[in-house]
Amino acid sequence: MGTVSAISQPAFALEERLRFVEVVLLWEGLVRRQRVSDVFRIAPNHVTRDMRYYLDRFPEAIDFRPELRGYVPGPNFKPRFASDDPAEYLSLLQARADSQGAALLPLTGGTVQVGALPSPAMGIDRAVLKQLVRAIHQGQGLSVTYLAMRAEGPSTRTLWPHALLNTGLRWYVRAYDSESSSFRNFVIARISNAGKSEARSPVPSSEDSGWHKHVTAHVVLHPKLNAHQQAVVAREFGMKRTGKQWVWSVELRQCLAGHFFRRYGLDAKPPVPPSSHWVVLRNRAELRPYFLPGGSE
Question: What is the arrangement of strands in the sheet containing 155-166, beginning at the earlier edge strand?
């Protein structure tokens, strides 16, 4: 049995196994040794040692039930390595479904079957993504061929990327653009070629106000929803009661705000019908400058 100091910081591999155990216990209520053994390809006796370690560190956190041949949450169980946030768990399930791989299996348990719409990453060129990620890490520029929807054909420009963005529909790269002399979002799937550029960025990423500055959207219920509909939508969006209104307040990077408004139909020209627009933007006038141009996403 280890001392308190010896067991205070588990090794990474052990922490991953314990996170898996907590996820399964938290959401499914039962975990068996063989399942942990199969996922991490370790001997069942090794799993027993892991459980003993966990109990030494967190007494009465788990109980072994012989009749179930597995462990269940004990009276003092609470996640120490995992998270009990449903949004995080469901996001991990979606990521696992998108990837169709086992990389996220230790974080999600693996037995819940998940279906998801096709990932927006499907049209992204592997070589282009590698160049973008490495340019971000190394602070370098890229000469790219970009297929803009509003252009007559491909254009060549130099980008200095510093972040990746996901809107739920597409992946973008946030970069300083030589052609417009500004920071902009570029659809990664529309970059057909990328090569290293030796040119230095005229403007550092620290001056990208669209990335560093935030706005807050106050999303409220459509006023023509009936009382039952209001309760349903407020629950679905996780709204909080503020005075007499249900409000979903969302802090957004300026460069993502327009995509958020488009995703939820918050930039639609009023009046909008409650049948297709359950929520509206309370501070619409303030945030109108961040709306996307018509037809853009």
Answer: 182-187, 171-177, 155-166, 141-146, 191-197
Pull the structure tokens for residue 163: 């972040």
8 A C-beta contact, residue 200 and residue 156: no
Report which of 170, 151, 158, 129 is spatially closest to residue 256, judged by C-alpha positions. 170
**What gap in Å lies between CA 95 and CA 104, rounded to an integer?**
8
Provide the residue type at 44 as one letter. P
The answer to whether the CB of 158 falls within 8 A of the CB of 151 is no
DSSP for residue 251:
E
Pairing type for strands 214-221 and 279-281 reads antiparallel
Task: Cite the beta strand spans of 70-228 per DSSP E.
Answer: 70-73, 141-146, 155-166, 171-177, 182-187, 191-197, 214-221
Rounded to the nearest 10°, the torsion over CA 246, 225, 88, 292 is -90
Rounded CA separation 222/143 (Å): 46
CB half-sphere exposure, 35, CA atoms < 13 A: 19
**Residue 203: both structure tokens together:** 């403007």
Residue ranges of domains in the chain, CATH in brackets: 7-116 (1.10.10), 121-208 (2.30.30), 213-290 (no CATH)
DSSP H or E stretch at residue 122? none
E strand map for 22-154: 62-65, 70-73, 141-146
* Residue pLDDT, tens place only, 261-283: 999 999 999 999 999 999 999 99
| DSSP secondary structure, 75-87, as one string | TT---SSS---HH
Lowest mean pLDDT, pick from 25-34, 72-81, 119-128, 217-226: 119-128
Q: Which amino acid is at 115?
A: G
Distance set, CA 254 to CA 158, 201, 211, 216 (Å): 23, 21, 6, 9
pTM: 0.77
Q: Which two tokens stand for residue 141?
A: 């520029």
